[in-house]
Design brief:
single chain, mainly alpha, about 85% helix, globular
């Protein structure tokens, strides 16, 4: 029991730090962990992941709001959009075979890894990236341009897609929102991560409630892991201007590739 608790907390700490740094809810790590290490069913893995994502994203979002490294209005708009579709994702998952859910999870995790590598390779050097991001965070957080209604509407549309994926696969949706905020809305990375966590904190709630009513959530495992994710997410949000982005993305991308491969192998070897 003690070993299980220690493993859960350490896993949660790693997930939380990654969440705070990258603006993800942590589902891309939690789903493989719950499936491969905890031996949960496909539905139980996604449901418990979604449950754990709520306190994780809340902790990270709180730190980002406090340090002004997010855009709350945009995050709320995306979160409300996602809250409309996350229950639909849960409903679709409840009617799908377990292997399809895990394949979808592996595909999403692999896509997230690809985006990590792509962004990392685009960065010229760790030093330039780190300095540029730190300057961006310190200057733009004090006087970021007002967000127009059109941008908020686009953010809500992005949230719709993220919410559907969140409910179906048990992820936060940050892997969709962060790249789209940067590419479509022109939001700097220093603000995209925190804004994504604000959205995840909102959009995951309806899906969690629905999964809970279905009896799919392993509450005890989720609480144990949250003991690590909550302080980890807060720490990760504070470290965002200190950790070289290129190194972080390469390391995390490599981990995601391994996790997605193991997820598929485990599903078809069982």
């Amino acid at each position: 029991m003690i070993d299980h608790l220690a493993l859960s907390v350490l896993t949660g700490l790693f997930v939380g730090v990654s969440s705070g740094l990258l603006g993800i809810g942590g589902g891309t790590i939690l789903v493989p962990v719950f499936r491969l290490l905890f031996g949960m069913s496909a539905m139980g893995s996604t449901a418990t992941s979604l449950f754990t994502i709520v306190p994780t994203s809340f902790s990270g979002a709180a730190a980002h709001v406090r340090h002004r490294t997010c855009i709350p209005r945009l995050g709320v708009a995306m979160g409300l959009g996602g809250a409309l579709t996350s229950p639909l994702g849960v409903l679709l998952a409840s009617k799908s075979p377990g292997w399809t859910i895990m394949l979808a999870a592996a595909a999403i995790i692999s896509t997230s890894a690809y985006n990590m590598f792509k962004k990392a390779l685009a960065l010229r050097s760790e030093g330039a990236s780190d300095a540029g991001r730190s300057a961006s965070a310190s200057q733009e957080s004090r006087a970021f341009p007002a967000i127009e209604r059109a941008v908020l509407a686009k953010g809500a549309a992005i949230g719709l897609a993220a919410g559907l994926a969140s409910g179906y696969v048990g992820v936060g949706g940050g892997f969709i929102m962060v790249p789209m905020m940067i590419g479509l809305l022109g939001i700097p990375m220093a603000f995209a991560s925190g804004t994504s966590l604000v959205a995840v904190m909102i959009l995951a709630v309806p899906g969690v409630i629905e999964q809970g009513l279905m009896g799919n959530v392993d509450i005890l495992a989720g609480i144990f892991v949250s003991l690590g994710t909550v302080p980890g997410a807060y720490l990760g949000a504070r470290l965002i201007t200190l950790i070289p982005e290129r190194t972080l993305r390469l390391t995390f991308g490599g981990f995601l590739i391994v996790a997605s491969i193991l997820l598929v192998v485990n599903e078809f070897a069982a």
